[in-house]
Design a protein that fits this description.
This protein is of the alpha/beta class. Helices cover about 50% and strands about 10% of the residues. A hairpin with a 2-residue loop joins strand 1 and strand 2. The N and C termini lie far apart (about 115 Å).
Length: about 1100
């Protein structure tokens, strides 16, 4: 202050000094006010009439009382600036009058009141907001003059800046008044309300909505922005705990959204309500939010016309009712003022001498309790200075504060969760966090507790978030997880990054920046690769390209790489997925040695429960968005928790057995029901399913085969397709069928047992390999083939499959297939199909993938896509630019070529035999054209790539109800697998090739896939280590070993009646039922003339030739 502070006059009372203030003006008044403040600071206000006298002066309303009111404001401002903890409590009673004086008719009073308001903001204790906020709220009423409202808003904003955590709980009460102020007709009120609202919303402390808080304010001021703002909020991934403050902040927006009475808008608002309410930790906190939203949600559930949108509103309403019930059953315990006063006076008796002070401290302690703020620092700020001001020793004041805090916490009912791990082992991590994937909340406010040297298994249903959790830990995205410098973590995934697959194994490891930083050289990497089985004489060598490795060897490569790091925590995702039995045994021993010798903690996700039984020492189960810990291995966990194990993927067997029996019995044949049920009993010698529960596939297939197949041997797909998504989900305990499209007839093929693809004496060698992967592979495929390719890791199974589908060229031998044969290939690591489209919807994904007339994934095959050098040859003089036509003459294929340098329309026809002798890129162009023709023949002309057609197709794969229009990155793993299947089947292929299709699928999806494959009218080629799946689907087994392919047919494990119904030839049944024939497929039905016959019978499909050399020479022979 400009006026010096005088020494207090001992002879003058507070009343006399205040009279001196009211008598003066200008500097004399300020000097008197300073003198009064100094006196009060020295003696306190206990028993003093000063506050009452100042208040009376403020209320003086005479025409000549303006200077008196101004003097009261000056005195109040001086007292606030020189306040003590005790005077602070007494001065709170004057705030209402100060705010009212902001609209005084006398300018002098307004100016003095403004200075007093700012002094209050500077003086206020954050914990005292329970005293100050109600006063501000009262003065924001529309009946108040605009100057008072602006002052109250300004003070509210200052308090929000000063104490955000204490302000947040008040938002529920403040939002209605704030919304009104934002639309006030007075520009000054609207402007200040906008500034204050921004500060208030910043106190919410929810990172999920902090980026769109400004949009909330804009919407409150301009209701026309409601739909746009709701769209932004509907796209938010809510992962943080939702408090009453966050709910209060969004409530105005939701109210306006529902009041628009638009189906789509109501649906989005309901979705926001559902998503946010799921994250309310204390259900009772949502109770204050419900009276405003529940009526609107109930109305939307009744009036929304769109059935799907109405269903979303109904689901949200049902969820809100559940939360309401929980909140009413377990209400939050509010602090009781009388109890709190007793705790205060009991712990600090001297404070009891000043009732005003006790009430003030009590208000602050109650506010902290109701906000669940039990940190000692907060309570120390709210109590210790006040106790010390009463004459309590500081140490005693802190002791008293701790006593009050403990008593308040006990009264509130807060109890810490017990820790179930009581071993003496070193704690690796102990943190609380929330985890989400897309819009789905996976884990909510749960604990992660890991100890050194244990082997943990993460259990849970598919799509619950096991892999996402491990990846988040590895990437440092789990809140509270120790820094990498404290806990060194290595994550070995089930796949290797595709962009690095061209590197050799050694180069791949050395390419990791962490490896480089650790100064690990090539010799060290090679030695580690040797340690896990990479040798010059093994199926995989250190210098082999990663792209040549099978899935099992890729997993070993990942483990070898992890060995080069100093690790505290090793994370393994499905480590046994592609391993043969010997490799699984090796992995078991390896993991035991890690924990036993090196003290490394291991966390594993696996559906191989035999493997988990051998390895685990602890179990972590995903349950109700929490992590539940069990101090036992998987075997003991299985015994003590059969109800949990029954619901895990690849375990639930009885459901499928029952489904099989019911489906067969529904057809009136009880013997089929018996056979279907017996299928499971036959899986193991003791009459029960194998230990890991794999038998479920066979039962599911039996159900599908006996119930879905009609007397003519065709799959009854129509009934399944006629069901709604909801009906499919409700049928069979959530069983969601998959319906494959009919591939249609293939030109010239009248029998499904006729050969459509044949390979003889084929060999193949990777460029970086020293010896061929395959040396003498021979096999053939018909439309009735159900082939399982089996063999050890690295034997060449995937290589064989890639050659069959055309992704890889053969190195030698002969390979023929029907020129119109359509194939679809789902790779071992199928998720790579959608990696480039994660920000697109499923509809957009299929539209972009097939919009150019053929499958873009197929166009990426090295056998079709031109290299840069080949493009240069094509563009050179007399190079072949494009293939635009095809014709079949005399059993030979001719192609119409566009030549560089020739006039437009001047094309050239050449036979395929001649084209095969031309530069290799020309044959690639031929293949590209063939694929386009196949795409047209699959129905492109009658089934356009439109949104309507795509949605119909996705519907058959269980992708509907809004999922088809949401972003792919928000889909679960199982939903992505269904999407990949749907995309692969869009072209209605005659042959489906699947590499390890059983990986990453839950019970229902795998059962649905099995049933769909059995009802499919085309051929199936699958690589799988899953014996029950093979038995359920396949009738041929190709064993790849020593570079050759040995083919055998076997009996499919279905009921006898199923085969009796089929109207296939006796040869078909014999070939399917004969066991262990050991013959090569070249000796089965079909001959070497099949392909020639197909070509001769095929119908020409070339465009009409124009000009010279437009038509190939005619064959003089009669047909």
């Amino acid at each position: 202050p400009t006026v010096p502070w005088p020494r207090p006059a001992r002879s003058m009372s507070h009343s006399d000094l205040f009279k001196k203030v009211t008598a003066g003006d200008g500097d004399a008044r300020q000097a008197a006010a300073n003198e009064l403040a100094a006196a009060v600071k020295a003696s306190g206000l206990k028993g003093s009439p000063l506050v009452g006298e100042i208040k009376a002066a403020m209320e003086a309303q005479g025409k000549k009382d303006g200077p008196t009111r101004a003097a009261a404001m000056v005195a109040t401002a001086a007292l606030c600036k020189e306040h003590t903890p005790t005077t602070e409590a007494h001065l709170a009673a004057l705030l209402g009058e100060v705010l009212n004086s902001l609209s005084d008719k006398v300018k002098e009073v307004q100016v003095a009141a403004d200075a007093a308001v700012k002094a209050y903001a500077e003086m206020a204790n954050g914990a005292a907001l329970n005293v100050l906020v109600p006063v501000c709220l009262e003065n924001m009423d529309s009946t108040k003059k605009w100057q008072t409202v602006v002052g109250a808003l300004m003070l509210l904003g200052e308090l929000a800046d000063k104490a955000p955590s204490q302000m947040a709980p008040h938002l529920t009460d403040l939002m209605p008044s704030m919304t009104s102020c934002l639309t006030d007709l007075k520009a000054q009120v609207k402007e200040q309300a906008q500034v204050t609202m921004k500060k208030l919303l910043d106190t919410v402390g929810n990172k999920d909505i902090e980026k769109v808080l400004d949009d909330l304010i804009v919407n409150m001021m301009d209701p026309t922005k409601t739909e746009e703002t709701v769209h932004k909020y509907a796209g938010i991934v809510f992962v943080q705990v939702v408090t009453a403050a966050a709910l209060a902040a969004v409530t105005p927006l939701l109210k306006r959204g529902f009041q628009e009475r638009k189906d789509a808008l109501s649906r989005m608002c309901a979705k926001i309500v559902a998503n946010m309410s799921k994250l309310v930790e204390e259900p009772a906190e949502a109770l204050v939010f419900m009276p405003q939203i529940m009526p609107l949600l109930e109305k939307a559930s009744e009036e929304v016309s769109d059935p799907e949108a109405r269903g979303v509103c109904e689901d949200a309403l049902e969820q809100m009712n559940r939360i309401k019930k929980k909140g009413e059953e377990r209400p939050l315990r509010k602090a009781e003022a009388d109890k709190m006063k007793a705790h205060i006076t009991g712990a600090a008796s001297k404070a009891g001498d000043d009732p005003v002070l006790v009430d003030y401290i009590c208000t602050m302690c109650c506010a902290l309790t109701d906000s669940r703020m039990f940190d000692f620092d907060d309570w120390e700020e709210a109590t210790v200075p006040y106790f010390v001001a009463c004459g309590v020793d500081e140490a005693a004041a802190k002791t008293a504060t701790q006593t009050i805090l403990d008593a308040a916490k006990n009264d509130s009912g807060i109890n810490d969760e017990p820790v179930d791990e009581d071993e003496d082992a070193e704690e690796l991590c102990n943190c609380k966090f929330t985890l989400a994937y897309g819009t789905k909340i996976l884990l909510f406010n749960t604990d992660m507790r890991l100890k050194r040297g244990y082997r943990y298994g993460l259990l849970g249903k598919n799509d619950c978030g096991k892999t996402t959790l491990m990846r988040s830990v590895a990437e440092g995205k789990v809140e509270g997880f120790p820094d990498p410098s404290e806990v060194r973590t290595v994550f070995v995934e089930a796949d290797i990054m595709g962009e690095k697959s061209h590197l050799t194994c050694v180069e791949y490891v050395l390419d990791d920046p962490a490896i480089k930083a650790a100064n690990i050289n090539e010799e060290m990497v090679t030695a580690q690769l040797n340690a896990v089985g990479f040798h010059e004489n093994a199926a995989a060598r250190p210098n082999d390209a990663v792209s040549t490795l099978s899935g099992g060897w890729r997993m070993k490569l990942g483990i070898a790489k992890s060995e080069l790091f100093s690790r505290d925590l090793l994370l393994l995702d499905e480590p046994t997925n592609h391993l043969d039995h010997a490799s699984v045994l090796w992995l078991q021993d390896y993991l035991r040695s890690l924990a036993d010798k090196a003290g490394i903690t291991v966390v594993i996700v696996s559906h191989d429960y035999d493997f988990l039984t051998e390895v685990l020492t602890r179990v972590i189960n995903f349950h109700d968005k929490k992590l539940a810990y069990y101090r036992c291995g998987f075997g003991d966990f299985q015994k003590s928790n059969p109800h949990i194990v029954a619901g895990l993927p690849h375990v639930n067997k009885s459901k499928f057995a029952d489904a099989a029996a019911e489906a067969a019995a529904a057809g009136g044949d009880t013997s089929q029901a018996t056979d279907a049920t017996a299928t499971i009993a036959d899986e193991t010698p003791n009459g029960s399913a194998d230990a890991n529960g794999s038998a479920y596939v066979t039962a599911a297939t039996a159900a599908a085969a006996t119930a879905a197949d009609g007397a003519d041997g065709t799959a009854a797909a129509a009934p399944a397709a006629a069901l709604t998504i909801e009906e499919r989900g409700n049928a069979g305990d959530g069983f969601m069928p998959i319906v494959f499209p009919d591939p249609g007839k293939l030109d010239g093929i009248r029998s499904r047992t006729k050969t459509v693809m044949k390979m003889s004496g084929v060999w193949f060698k990777y460029p970086s390999a020293e010896k061929p992967q395959l040396t003498n592979a021979s096999c053939q495929i018909t439309l009735s083939s159900r082939v399982a390719i089996v063999g050890a890791n690295g034997a060449g199974k995937t290589t064989l499959l890639k050659m069959l589908v055309g992704e890889t060229d053969i190195g030698g031998g002969t390979f023929d297939k029907h020129e119109n044969l359509r194939l679809s290939y789902i790779a071992q690591h199928s998720m790579h199909h959608v990696e480039d489209y994660l920000d697109k919807s499923p509809v957009q994904y299929i539209m972009m993938r097939f919009q150019e007339g053929m499958d873009k994934e197929m166009a990426k095959f090295s056998t079709i896509q031109l290299t840069d050098d080949e493009k240069a040859l094509s563009a050179a003089s007399m190079g072949v630019v494009e293939v635009i036509g095809r014709a079949n003459r005399g059993g030979k294929l001719w192609y119409e070529l566009v030549i560089t340098g020739r006039k437009q329309g001047d094309t050239k026809w050449e036979p395929l035999q001649f084209i095969e002798k031309m530069p290799p890129y020309v044959l690639k162009l031929v293949r590209h054209y063939d694929e386009k023709l196949k795409a047209q023949q699959s129905g492109m002309e009658v089934r356009p790539v439109t949104t309507v057609e795509i949605k119909k197709h996705l519907y058959d794969f269980g992708i509907a109800n809004g999922l088809e229009d949401s972003k792919i990155k928000r889909m679960s793993g199982g939903q992505k697998c269904r999407l990949v299947l749907a995309a692969a089947l869009w072209s209605m292929p005659h042959i489906i090739a699947l590499d390890e299709p059983t990986n990453y699928l839950d019970n229902d999806t795998l059962a649905a896939l099995t049933a769909a494959l059995n009802g499919y009218k085309g051929g199936v080629i699958a690589i799988s280590h899953n014996a029950p799946f093979v038995d359920a689907v396949c009738n041929e087994r190709w064993t790849v070993a020593n570079g050759e392919v040995m083919c055998e047919s076997f009996k499919v494990k279905r009921s006898k009646e199923y085969f009796d119904k089929k109207k296939g030839s006796q040869t078909d049944l014999a070939s399917m039922q004969s066991a262990d024939s050991g013959t090569n497929l070249s000796s089965l039905a079909g001959s070497t003339n099949d392909l020639a016959g197909m070509e001769a019978a095929a119908v020409g499909d070339a465009k009409k030739p124009v000009g010279k050399e437009k038509r190939p020479p005619k064959d003089k022979k009669k047909k």
